[in-house]
Structures are given as structure tokens and as C-alpha cells.
TrEMBL record:
PANTHER family for the chain: LD30995P, SECERNIN
A molecular function (GO) term: dipeptidase activity
Name by which UniProt lists this protein: Dipeptidase
GO BP terms in the entry: proteolysis
Gene3D superfamilies: Penicillin V Acylase, Chain A (3.60.60.10)
Family statement drawn from the similarity comment of this UniProt entry: Belongs to the peptidase C69 family. Secernin subfamily.
Secretion signal, residue range per the UniProt entry: none
Domain of life: Eukaryota
Length: 257
């Protein structure tokens, strides 16, 4: 059997993929097993958008929710689907969560170069919070820790092949974000600043706000000035409190309107 794929945003027909033997019920961005996937678009290197393929970001989410039970299964499913069917959208940050684990997966297509996508997924440690807001956030990542980090096998070699990363530089220094979605003034001020405001409100480290203020103001955009992917909160965050943080408008910070 085949499944027809329509672009999530435009509704354009993209083609057909093989249907799975069994699929799960999905409502919104949550399936019957408690697996949830959210996203924000970061765009990234413009030459890597709009490649050949059958899956846009929304269809990738929907098909994965129909086929995976856990966050870890979903990470693997993302990788298999884009490798087999290609990816046609811009760069995306995905939050993939179940009752036991939360992963942040960042992915960008290969544009005119070849079918597929490159990606990195990092598990958020228990007791920590993370966030993304239209700017890729995974910088350096562990190359030999599959329990906590999974990535496309060509995430570095592809960057080398198209001239985005020097062939002789140590792989341990490779940064996904700085290679595929380099930080800009607007990336810091309009995007990462929203994560900064949330982290500042909840971080156990009370100095967090001031420590990264120059970065989100666009005054220091060096790689070393950027924020961590996750922080330890000073207390557990309830669902109701999280709703409040989603209404954050930089109140009480240097960006308070």
C-alpha cells in the first residue's frame, strides 16, 4: 500500500511513500502512545532548501507519529524517512518527547547536492529544560555517546564536501548550528532571545540572564558567547507555569518592551 503526501503548508501534492503495516492514531502533534513532536523553523543555509524528495517538515512529523511509539524510535524514524524519501523543507528544530525522554533534533536538507538531509539529535538530561525559537541551537555534540546523541553518519562529511567545514579540522570541533545555520544579529536578537528570556526566568543559575545578555543584544555573536542547549531549572515546572512562560514578552529584562 502507498500513502499520499501533501505539503503541510501549501497543500501541494508531493507524491507517494510506502505505507507501514501498522499505524498509530494521531491527534494534533501527539499520538496514542504519548509521543509528541513540536518544531520551529530556522531556515539555515539557503542552498540547502528545496531539494528533491517527498517529505516536508510537517509530513515528516505526521508520518513519524503514525509509526513510532517512543522518542528514541522517532529519532531513528526521522533518519530513515529522510534518507529514503528525501526532504524538501528548510532547516528545522524538532522537540521529540515521550513520558521518559526528550530529544532535540535539528535537521537540514541537502538542497541541489543530493537527496536526503543531515541532522543531529541530543537527549535532554533528566531534570533539565530546553528550548528553541527559529534558530538552530545544537553546536558541538558528542560523537561517541549513542545513548545521548544520535546523528546522520554524513553530518560532517557532507559539510566538508560542499565547503562548509575544513577537511583538516578535528571532527570534535564540529558545530551543527555554526556550520548549517550560522548565528546572525537577527538570529540572536529575534530568535535565541526568546529562549534566553525563558531560561533566565527558570534557571537554577541566577546569573544566567546577565551572562548571556550581550549575546542576545547582538553585541557578542562569537560561538563561545552562545547559550547552552539546556539548563537545570531552580524548581520543577508545572504545565500551568509553562503556559505562562509561553506568554513571555521579556518582562523585567534588558529587552522589556
Amino acid at each position: 500500500a502507498k500513502r499520499k503526501i501533501w505539503d503541510w503548508d501549501s497543500g501541494a501534492y508531493l507524491g507517494e511513500i510506502d505505507e507501514a503495516p501498522e499505524t498509530y492514531n494521531v491527534v494534533g502533534n501527539l499520538n496514542e502512545h504519548g509521543l509528541a513532536i513540536g518544531e520551529t523553523t530556522f531556515g539555515g543555509n539557503e542552498t540547502l532548501a528545496g531539494g528533491a524528495g517527498l517529505l516536508d517538515y510537517g509530513s515528516l512529523i505526521w508520518v513519524t507519529l503514525q509509526r513510532a511509539k517512543t522518542a528514541r524510535e522517532a529519532v531513528a524514524m526521522f533518519g530513515r524517512l529522510v534518507a529514503e524519501y528525501g526532504y524538501v523543507s528548510e532547516g528545522e528544530s524538532f522537540t521529540i518527547a515521550d513520558a521518559q525522554e526528550v530529544w532535540v533534533l535539528e535537521l537540514i536538507g541537502k538542497g541541489k547536492y543530493e537527496k536526503g538531509a543531515v541532522w543531529v539529535a541530543v537527549r535532554i538530561p533528566d531534570g533539565h529544560v530546553s528550548g528553541h525559537a527559529n534558530q538552530a541551537r545544537i553546536q558541538r555534540f558528542p560523537l561517541d555517546d549513542p545513548e545521548n546523541c544520535i546523528y546522520a553518519p554524513d553530518v560532517i562529511s557532507f559539510a566538508i564536501s560542499i565547503g562548509l567545514w575544513p577537511a583538516g579540522r578535528p571532527k570534535e570541533e564540529f558545530s551543527f548550528s555554526d556550520t548549517y545555520d550560522p548565528i546572525t544579529f537577527s538570529g540572536a536578537r529575534q530568535s535565541d532571545a526568546r529562549v534566553w528570556s525563558f531560561f533566565s526566568a527558570v534557571a537554577e543559575d541566577r546569573s544566567f540572564e546577565k551572562a548571556y545578555e550581550a549575546y542576545v543584544l547582538g553585541q557578542n555573536l562569537s560561538a563561545s558567547a552562545r547559550m547552552p542547549l539546556h539548563v537545570k531549572p531552580r524548581a520543577k515546572i508545572s504545565a500551568h507555569e509553562l503556559m505562562g512562560h509561553m506568554r513571555n514578552h521579556y518582562e523585567g529584562t534588558a529587552l522589556d518592551p
